[in-house]
Design brief:
about 5% strand, mainly alpha, two-stranded antiparallel ribbon, about 230 residues, elongated, 2 strands, 10 helices
Length: about 230
């Protein structure tokens, strides 16, 4: 599988050669065809593995918090992007797939289904993140996931083009900004510490107290409300 990831990620579907994959894997071409059936099946299996890895890695998003603590959207999102940029073969594979899909109409429904599976996992995490912060999404989670997934792939491609570009940190900030813009405090749900969430998804600061009369002032005077 690793040999196929490298081959298709480097040469794309059209340029990838089963003979090179077999040689790199230390098997015969016949054995490879006996196992996968065709080059198309091998390519689909490689992409399916990539999606499954992304789905599994999405669990990192949930783990980036202590028990009972709200999800830190920025930190978790940067961890997710780090998986994309950590092994550039996978993002190259995605890029090559997007360029090759027009030549693979027979695989288009399967590939589209796999991509929906990955976005659905992200949508579930977004809903969980909102709930953990005492918030609720104001747009469908699937729609927000679509935009964030595209942003993540785009940032990873930019990093692949220019490895000196610091995408982590930037990505997290943008995801958090979009998340906050597309969610609001849920009055029916308290934040994990028992307080209601404020507009930033955190425990609200204590309300400012009314100014106390200065010493010697008329204690019976009506206090003026703060502007």
């Amino acid at each position: 599988m690793e040999a196929a990831v490298t081959e298709f990620g480097r040469h794309g579907y059209q340029g990838g050669r089963v003979e090179r994959i077999a040689a790199a894997a230390g098997v015969t071409t016949g054995a490879l065809y006996a196992h996968f059936g065709s080059k198309e099946d091998l390519f689909l299996t490689v992409y399916e593995e990539a999606v499954h890895r992304l789905v599994d890695e999405a669990e990192v998003l949930t783990y980036h918090r202590g028990k009972g603590e709200p999800v830190d959207v920025a930190v978790a999102s940067d961890a997710w992007l780090g998986w994309h940029t950590g092994d550039p073969r996978w993002i190259r594979l995605v890029a090559e797939l997007m360029l090759s899909i027009a030549d693979l109409p027979v695989l288009q429904p399967d590939i589209a289904g796999l991509r929906r599976q990955g976005r659905q996992k992200l949508a579930e995490w977004l809903s969980e993140a909102a709930e953990s912060q005492g918030r609720r999404l104001t747009v469908p989670a699937e729609e927000l996931a679509l935009h964030l997934h595209a942003l993540g792939i785009g940032m990873a491609l930019e990093h692949m083009t220019d490895p000196s570009l610091a995408v982590e940190g930037r990505f997290g900030r943008w995801v958090e900004a979009m998340f906050m813009h597309c969610s609001e405090p849920d009055p029916a749900r308290a934040a994990p510490d028992g307080h209601r969430a404020d507009g930033d998804g955190h425990r609200p600061a204590p309300a400012p107290r009314a100014a106390r009369p200065e010493a010697g002032a008329d204690a019976g005077a009506d206090a003026q409300p703060s502007p």
